[in-house]
Amino acid sequence: MNHLPQAWGRPRDDIYGAYDNSYLQSHGPNQHTQQPIVTGTSVVALKFKDGVIIAADNLASYGSLARFTDVKRLRTFADTSVVGFGGDVSDMQYLDRLLNSLDTEEAYSSSGHTLNAHNLHTYLSKVFYKRRSDFNPLWNQILVAGLDGESKPFLASADLLGTTFSSPSLATGFGAHLAQPLLRKVAPDEEAAAKLSKEQALEAVKESMKVLFYRDARSLDNYSIAVVTKDGIDLKENEKLEKQSWAFADQIRGYGTQIN
Amino acid sequence: MCLSALNPNTRAIVPGAPKVQQTTELQRPLQIPIHPQLLTLRTSQSTLEHHGTGYDLTNSVFSPDGRNFQVEYAVKAVENGGTSIGIRCKDGVVLAVEKIITSKLLKAGANKRIATIDRHVGAVSSGLVPDGRHFVSRARDEAASWRSTYKTPITTKDLASRMGGYLQAYTLYSSVRPFGITAIVAGWDSELELPVDGQVGSGPSIGSGGKVEGKTFGGPGLYMIEPSGLYWGYYGAATGKGRQTAKAELEKLDLAALKLSLQDGVKEAAKIIYVAHADNKDKEFELEMTWISNIDGPTKGRHQEVPKDILEEAENLAKKYLEGEDDEETKDDDKPAEGDKMEE
Proteasome alpha-type subunits domain spans which residues (chain B) (predicted)? Predict the structure, then answer.
């Protein structure tokens, strides 16, 4: 040890040579988001005659821990669109602020024009694509539901890779495997979706949310659901799954030979 | 420099430069008020000569009696602009501006003068219109930067403070000129417990959370910012050509009691702009009016244009009121101008 405080705790120069300060700097690549941390699970959505229905549960998981149980993953935009977020919740918060400032700035131009769901989806997909091209993705898959420039129902997906697609029904994450088959039963194509009533569509979406709660270990029975039509957005954020069926469980004993 | 400072009647002469005519009186209008106490302090017998020795040629320069003449000239630019007013009501704030129609070729209702900042604040100014636009642009940047720092909308008070600071900075350097506007900034700060931007969930449902029971926040805000950077909060504010008349009308309303409703505020604002315009009858004008209500009101806490039907109704009432006044023939227009100069 010597009298120089900056040398204290460091290897002695006279024995090990001058300390190489470059070890204190990081010369490696920037460490961007490598994986999601707090996550939301599926978002499901279905077009019908007059608009679109979109739903997502209120859970944000921390790994397998059901950490936050009142996280609203549906966000409205400009009274005509709803964005449903799956994936990383902190990135969802970032996107929410981005949409907020976009909405404010759009209102500054006195044209009176507001962005419709189609415009919004284009914007978000370009944000996602830019970020993945920078090797710094926003770890989400989103569904944009609302009305397009001709006031027709609009539904499309965008994700962390910048991939986009559209369909009469859409679901992210687990929902793509479990809910999509159910939704496609009621709306196999655009023609079928254009004939669906709001009640039929609501029933199909609620049924999908129930199946997801049965089979997705990162899901919750509290959910948000929004119906977008020309009349505006009807957003309910504290819905509870109804009519679950668990009575049959009493009859199940053991894993094979056990009798009571 | 030294020469001119020592001898008030000589300007520094650059060799070879054309001789500057000694037109000290013409350098600036003469009606700038001089504090009587300062008059007694003078050793020179001609105060006006003393003033005209370059103290008004450069921004940020103090005159011997401690004034920045360039700022006072900016105020003159404001005094020629169309009248702008703001009224702070019980459940909202109203902004109105008199837009002189300089040409029949201008499209009616197309050239907006009142701007929105964020969603909940409105701003209007009298004076140089481009300076007003610069003001609004800066205010929008300030509001956005506030949001990115605090994740919550800027309060009207904080925005006024920041913009006051911004205008004041333009009195500090000779390389810039002061703003040729007096701006009125009006907003409604939500009294609700708003989620911060991007918030997910609502946090713990038990525990104090640092909240004080029964304490409410928010409400209407109205501020007027002058070219010097000086700003105050007002119950009712007026600036521009018709400010004297407008102020007299505003004083009749007892705004301090905060009893005037927003709907009535709109009618009063239209009336005041019409009354203030009466001194300037030869020119046509257009009334532009915006409002911000509380969350239960017609604009739900946002700054918006007053809807056409309500605006027309208010204008008709204003016209009727003016006709009634004309009939009485009891005009006492030429009241002495008071409170016209910048306050300290």
Answer: 55-77
CA terminus-to-terminus distance, chain A: 74
Looking at residue B314, the DSSP 8-state letter turns out to be: H
Closest to A227 in 3D by CA, of A40, A58, A57, A74: A74
pLDDT interval class at B174 (50, 70, 90): very high
Torsions phi, psi for A142 (to 5 deg):
-125, 155
- Among A61, A97, A111, A222, most B C-beta atoms within 10 A, so best to mutate, is A97
CA distance linking residue B117 with residue A133, whole number of Å: 34
CA distance A172 to A31: 27
Cα nearest neighbour of A238 on chain B: B201
**Six-digit token string for A95:** 């996107």
Q: Tens of pLDDT along B106-165?
A: 999 999 999 999 999 999 999 999 999 999 999 999 999 999 999 999 999 999 999 999
Residues of B in contact with A72 (CB under 8 A): 200-201
Is A163 an annotated catalytic residue?
Answer: no
* ipTM for the complex shown: 0.81
pLDDT at A71 over 50: yes
* Tokens describing residue B21: 């005519």
Residues of B in contact with A106 (CB under 8 A): none
How far apart CA B143 and CA A187 sit, in angstroms, is: 45
Locate tokens 């209702």: which residue?
A: B109
Residues 6 or more apart in contact with residue B218 via CB below 8 angstroms: B188, B189, B190, B191, B192
Residue A168 CA to residue A46 CA, distance in Å, equals: 6
pLDDT at site B24: 45
CB contact under 8 A, B116 and A107: yes
According to DSSP, residue B187 is labeled E
Question: Are A96 and B202 inside 8 Å of each other by CB?
Answer: no
Distance CA A57, CA A171 (A): 13
Report the first-to-last Cα separation within chain B, whole angstroms. 30
pLDDT at residue B52, as a whole number: 58
Residue A100 contacts B where some CB pair is shorter than 8 Å: yes
- Residue whose structure tokens are 């500057």: B20
Whether the CB-CB separation of B302 and B120 falls below 8 Å is answered with yes
Q: Scanning the structure block, which residue is given the tokens 């935009």?
A: A77
CB B180 within 8 A of CB B131: yes
Residue A184 CA to residue A161 CA, distance in Å, equals 25
Q: Quick check: A71 and B118 CB within 8 A?
A: no
Question: What's the pLDDT at B4?
Answer: 42
Q: Which two tokens stand for residue B169?
A: 């900075």
Residue B14 pLDDT? 44
Q: Checking phi first, is residue B82 left (phi over 0); if not, alpha (psi -120 to 50) or beta?
A: beta
